[in-house]
Each structure stands twice: as structure tokens, then as C-alpha cells.
Design brief:
Elements (H helix, E strand, L loop, with lengths): L4 E2 L4 E12 L2 E13 L12 E5 L4 E2 L10 H6 L3 E7 L4 E6 L4 H15 L5 H12 L7 H10 L9 H18 L5 H18 L4 H19 L5 H15 L7 H21 L9 H25 L2 E3 L2 H28 L4 H22 L5 E3 L5 H20 L2 H17 L1
Parallel strand pairs: 3-6
Antiparallel strand pairs: 1-2, 2-3, 4-7, 5-6, 8-9
């Protein structure tokens, strides 16, 4: 099974069928199924890689919601076409797969270490999600607050988090190893990146980031700094070769859309204004990074989620600058805590830092009109909106009449259909 996910009244599990038993006869089977089990003390112990035996009657996944969410399409893109609701007495733990046992045991040992510090529940949940990529324990209300503030990406291990690991490991290796050991440093960096990627669950965003930084490390070692577009394209192609279904997953689309927006348009936006004060330069740079990513991902968020966080610039300005420091400090403290019991005062400091971050997000979501709902768009409308943004930004970038005409056509089309 994949990592179970908490729902309001149950635990959602994406599982792979390993076999069937009917009338006492066992047969080999292969396929995927979506299971829902009651969220209780027994099911809470389930984790990624566990194997369970289930007595069930399954149904085909059909659309029953009037919110516009296409369940059959969403699960179909994951090759899941059936689901079942399982009673407490109709499932049994049967062991775990061997392929990732050691790494998963370390992951859950790290989670148990964090839980032993008696932090505030929300501080504990955010730290586990931020460092280890385990969002299963996240409170639904807390996750919604981060989404409404426009910083839910902080809770999903992605390029930002992998980049911090890359810079931290590179800094340590440059301190203790000479330049003549460049090949060894590159191999160590790549090994640490992929160990961290596996430890956090190898989500598409982590795959993408780890692949990109791997290619970057190899290029630096060979003395050949390849273009960023080539690196992005190569990482996407590699991921799609390994799993072509990623192309239809919202996380994959949002991840690459954000990266494209930042790489393509952030330098352009940064040139729109030159701050007179030096301290304003990093602030302006951070704002343009957030704005470029948000513009390009807006068509995807309206299509999949139907909402827009109004204060995303403020949220990113307050949270992102501290994220690198919080991650580095958390990793250092967690390493100490795994080796030896952590001093109470140190765990209190970590608890206080995460609590401040959570309180900041909460205050932002209480501002008037913090989130705009009801923005559901069809695939065609979202595609047209994306074309509108890209043609507009390219028009400003290139000052070309062709892009102006493209932007005008998109504008007319949007006014017509919206």
C-alpha cells in the first residue's frame, strides 16, 4: 500500500492487489484499488509498504459529487478503477514488503523520535511533513489553512526542500574535502539526495527535484553547465519514461508549471522595478518568485481546486525566508535526537519556532477575503487561461506584435466563454 491519508471519517489507502481468494481458492492478481477503512488506533499504525488481507465487495468508481470533481478521471489517471469501504473486522495485517524496509524503518524511527518530544500537535505534524514528507498525520484544518494562505507547497517535500539539502551537503563537503576530490563530492551529493528522496516517499515533486540536482551536480563535475531548460526537460522526460501516468497527475503538472514560471518570467518581473534600498532587493526578488509561480499555476489550481489564495504574496514573504533556516535546524536537531535523548530546552525551541509559523498562517487566513472560492474551470477554460497569461507575459518580454495579437485573441475568447 501507499502512505495512508487521513480523511474526515476514514483512512484512505491506495493499494496494489497482490492476490485474490474466492471459495477457498487463491489466485494471482495485479491491479490497484482505493480502500477506505475506519480511522482508529489499529488502522493508524498502518504505513507505506504494509500488506493487509481484506474481505470486501468493491464497486466501480463513478462521479457522485456535485462539486465538479471528476472522481473517475482523477482515480483513472492513477490506474484505479474500483474502490471499497472496509469494516473494522474485515481487514488483517499480513506483514510488509521487503524492498524498502530498512529505509522505512528509519523513517518511522525518526517520526517516533519527533513524537517523543511532546511538542504541540500542530508543530509536530508540520515538522514531520516538512522534513520527512509524511502528511498522513496532518490535521485537515491545518492543511486547509496552509492552502488558503497559498503556502501549502511548504508541507510537500519539493524542489525547495531538496535544494536546501543540496546546498547543505555541498557546503559541508566543500569544507572538509579539497577540489581535487570533486568526483567523490559529486557522488556523495547524489547519494544523499536520493537517500533523502527515498526517505521522504519519492513523490513526483521530489523525483523531479532530485533528478534536476543530480544532473546539475554531474554537469558541474564535468565542467559543463547545461541550460536550465535542458535540465528541466531531461528530468521530466526521465520521470515520464519511468511512469507515464505522472503526466496526468495534478502534483506533477503544478510542480513543472511553477518551475517554468519562475525560470522563464521571474528575471523579467524582477527588472520591472529596482529598489532604492539594498534591504528591499531580496524582498522584491522573493515577491517576484512567488508571483511568477502563482500566475502560471493559477489555471491549474482553478481547474483542480476551484480556489485562489488572495494573500499568497504576504504568506510567502513571511514563511519562505525562514524555511531554509528552519529545515537546517530541524535536520540537525533530529539527527541529535535519533542518536541521543534531546535536551528539553532544545525541543521547546523547535516547538516554539513551528508554533510561530503556524500562528502566522492562521492569522493570515483570518484576514478579510483570504481565499476566493467557486473558481472551478473546465479543462478548455483552464488551457485558455494559461495561454492568456503566457501570451501576455511573452508580449511584455518580447514586445512583439505577434504575441500582442495572440494575447488579444485569448482575451476575446476568455470574455466570450467565462
Amino acid at each position: 500500500m501507499n502512505q495512508p491519508e487521513c480523511k474526515p471519517k476514514s483512512l484512505a489507502i491506495e493499494g496494489r492487489v497482490l492476490g485474490l481468494m474466492c471459495s477457498g481458492e487463491r489466485s494471482v492478481a495485479d491491479g490497484n484499488i482505493q480502500l477506505y477503512v475506519k480511522d482508529d488506533e489499529r488502522s493508524a499504525s498502518l504505513k507505506e509498504g504494509d500488506v493487509i488481507t481484506v474481505k470486501l465487495q468493491y464497486d466501480s468508481i463513478i462521479n457522485t459529487s456535485d462539486t465538479g470533481f471528476d472522481a473517475s478521471l482523477y482515480f483513472g489517471q492513477k490506474n484505479i478503477y474500483h474502490r471499497a469501504y472496509v469494516r473494522q473486522t474485515d481487514w488483517w495485517y499480513s506483514g510488509e514488503l521487503d524492498s524498502r524496509n530498512s529505509l522505512m524503518r528509519f523513517r518511522y524511527r525518526a517520526i517516533a523520535t519527533i513524537q517523543s518530544w511532546n511538542m504541540k500537535p500542530h508543530s509536530e505534524q508540520v515538522m514531520i511533513a516538512l522534513i520527512l514528507g509524511d502528511k498522513r498525520l496532518l490535521d485537515k484544518e491545518l492543511r486547509q489553512r496552509y492552502a488558503e494562505a497559498g503556502v501549502v507547497h511548504v508541507l510537500a517535500v519539493s524542489g525547495l526542500h531538496v535544494g536546501v539539502i543540496y546546498l547543505l551537503v555541498s557546503l559541508l563537503l566543500n569544507t572538509f574535502l579539497s577540489n581535487r576530490q570533486a568526483f567523490a563530492k559529486t557522488m556523495v551529493v547524489i547519494l544523499v539526495l536520493w537517500l533523502y528522496a527515498c526517505l521522504t516517499g519519492l513523490s513526483p515533486s521530489v523525483w523531479r527535484a532530485a533528478t534536476m540536482f543530480t544532473l546539475l551536480s554531474i554537469g558541474r563535475n564535468l565542467g559543463r553547465m547545461t541550460g536550465i531548460y535542458h535540465t528541466i526537460s531531461a528530468s521530466a522526460l526521465l520521470l515520464l519514461v519511468l511512469d507515464s501516468d505522472l503526466l496526468f497527475k495534478p502534483g506533477f503538472q503544478l510542480s513543472y508549471a511553477a518551475v517554468f514560471g519562475i525560470v522563464r518570467y521571474q528575471p523579467q518581473m524582477q527588472d520591472w522595478w529596482t529598489p532604492s534600498q539594498k534591504w528591499m532587493s531580496p524582498v522584491w526578488q522573493l515577491l517576484t518568485v512567488s508571483l511568477s509561480a502563482q500566475i502560471i499555476t493559477l489555471p491549474f489550481t482553478t481547474h483542480y481546486f476551484g480556489q485562489f489564495p488572495t494573500y499568497f504574496l504576504l504568506s510567502n514573504l513571511l514563511v519562505i525566508p525562514l524555511l531554509s533556516s528552519i529545515m537546517i535546524a530541524s535536520i540537525a536537531v533530529l539527527t541529535i535526537g535519533i542518536i541521543t535523548p534531546l535536551p528539553h530546552w532544545l525541543s521547546n525551541i523547535i516547538d516554539m519556532v513551528y508554533n510561530i509559523q503556524n500562528q502566522t498562517i492562521t492569522h493570515i487566513t483570518t484576514l478579510p477575503n483570504a481565499v476566493v472560492n467557486g473558481l472551478e474551470t473546465s479543462f478548455f477554460q483552464a488551457s485558455l487561461l494559461l495561454a492568456f497569461f503566457i501570451s501576455g507575459l511573452e508580449m511584455v518580454r518580447r514586445r512583439d506584435a505577434k504575441w500582442f495579437m495572440a494575447w488579444m485573441l485569448c482575451s476575446i475568447a476568455l470574455i466570450t466563454i467565462l
